């Protein structure tokens, strides 16, 4: 299964509550709801190159499945963790550097859409992307 392609956010579920649980202030949350996030994924075996483009920033991320790496979320929160492939799903587990709490995320292809799910401290959210 390949996640390769360019994906643009189409809709979100419970994303504001998730960001609130993450400690993101109300102004940044309102802006994030309209970030027009586009994710370009290039997958070669167990290596990934991802380009995230939004209204606010563009960021390139390179990682290999199972190898820990550091990452800065859009709000500046620093995390460290890994992505693993579980069946047809990418599963990420990241630890915040500021409070050592865990953020989990998955990416799965569902009905031709890329569904990214998040969990932080008991709050779940989803962002659904359409292929461009």
From TrEMBL:
Coiled coil: none annotated. The keyword Transport applies. One of its GO terms (molecular function) is retinal binding. InterPro entries: Calycin (IPR012674), Fatty_acid-bd (IPR000463), ILBP (IPR031259), Lipocln_cytosolic_FA-bd_dom (IPR000566). Transmembrane segments: none annotated. PROSITE patterns: FABP. This is Cellular retinoic acid-binding protein 1. It comes from Seriola lalandi dorsalis.
């Amino acid at each position: 299964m390949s996640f390769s392609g360019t994906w643009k956010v189409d809709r979100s579920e419970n994303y504001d509550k998730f960001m609130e649980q993450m400690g993101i202030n109300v102004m940044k949350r309102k802006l994030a709801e309209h970030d027009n996030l586009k994710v370009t994924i290039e997958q070669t075996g167990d290596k990934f190159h991802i380009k995230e483009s939004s209204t606010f920033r563009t960021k390139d991320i390179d990682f290999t499945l199972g190898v820990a790496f550091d990452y800065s979320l859009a709000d500046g929160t620093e995390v460290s963790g890994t992505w693993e492939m579980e069946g047809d799903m990418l599963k990420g587990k990241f630890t915040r550097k500021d409070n050592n709490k865990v953020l989990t995320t998955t990416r799965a292809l569902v009905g031709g859409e890329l569904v990214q799910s998040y969990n932080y401290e008991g709050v779940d959210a989803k962002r659904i992307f359409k292929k461009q």
